[in-house]
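Changelog note: in this version the structure field was regenerated for every chain. One regenerated record is shown below for reference.
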Amino acid sequence: MDKISCRLTNVWGLVFTLSVLIVPLSCQAHEPANPNVIKFGIYPYQSPRTIVEMYGPLAARLEKKLGKKIIIFSAPDLKIFLEKAKGGEHDLLLTPPSLCYTLRSADYKVIARGASTFYGGAIVRKDSDVKTIEQLKGKKVAAIGEHSYAGYIFLLPQLKAKGIDPQEDIDIQFLGKMDNVIYGVINKKYDAGLLRLDTLDLPAFSGIRDQVTVISRSPEIPQFPFVVKNSMDKATITAIQETLSALSPDNPEELEILKSMQVEKIITATDADYEEFNEQIKDTDYFRQP
């Protein structure tokens, strides 16, 4: 696949140029580390264009603070994302909480997280005959991916409690992107969809959020963590943390950055902030390490 390059200029009044690249990781060669470049890998839960729109402004702020080039990398799917992340090809990662446990063994550590928590959920069209998760038996369900807690894993023990085998009794298909799940349900390609529920509050879905209803919710989920290589120098980590935590909802421009990331604010964090969640997911019968 081709490399998609996007130069963002004059972002929210910041007069400088940022190169933002969305690169299919399967095509990227592993290059020697460049101390003047931060490779920022973002879990591919949205389309490449949406990822640029959501995280380009944040990357611009980081570039200004660090004085280094920030390159955003995404991937066509979770498998490729994990291969490259576990191979140490990125300096900074924004990853779903369900993968935080796995990446720790690949020499990454948590340095920040969003606040507050969020929920996963199962949605159906409002005019659907499906009103409960028991009625999903024999139905076609769109999910994000097999390692997405909000977009898949949370529902599995709920189904088991109802005597439903998700592998045998439901046709679950992994679509990889939130927008694919939402529009798949809206367009009646799927009877239900599994996703992070506050995605429906994004401006892109303002015209359709009233067309769906929620039939099941997950427990609280900690926000996506920012993780870095254990080898990253302390000064760079501190600068990243300061940039992230300085984003204020009282500043209209910075509020837009936070809203695009679906967080109220970003705070400094460590691996310990995800211990309880890690214990919850690694002990379930359905959670399989990649």
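Spot check on this record: Residues 120-217 form a domain with the D-Maltodextrin-Binding Protein; domain 2 fold (CATH 3.40.190.10). The chain has two domains: 4-114+223-282, 120-217.
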